[in-house]
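Before a colleague's protein record goes any further, I have to sign it off. I want your independent view on whether this chain really folds as the tokens say. The record follows directly below this note.
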Amino acid sequence: MIQALDAELADPTLYEKSPAKAAQKAKERSDAVDKLAHAEEQWLELSSEYEEAMAI
């Protein structure tokens, strides 16, 4: 999803033809990056908990 948004945002004509759409796509990308970061944090936390439980 982030790669697709990056590809869309890389098109300079998007900003000229539809600045509102460009802004929306930029927001969607930001939201996707935030969700990915949150998911990675959860994964690391749960992986750590799993490793601790398995060590017992």
About this structure: The mean pLDDT is 97. The chain has three helices and no strands. The longest helix spans residues 19-55.
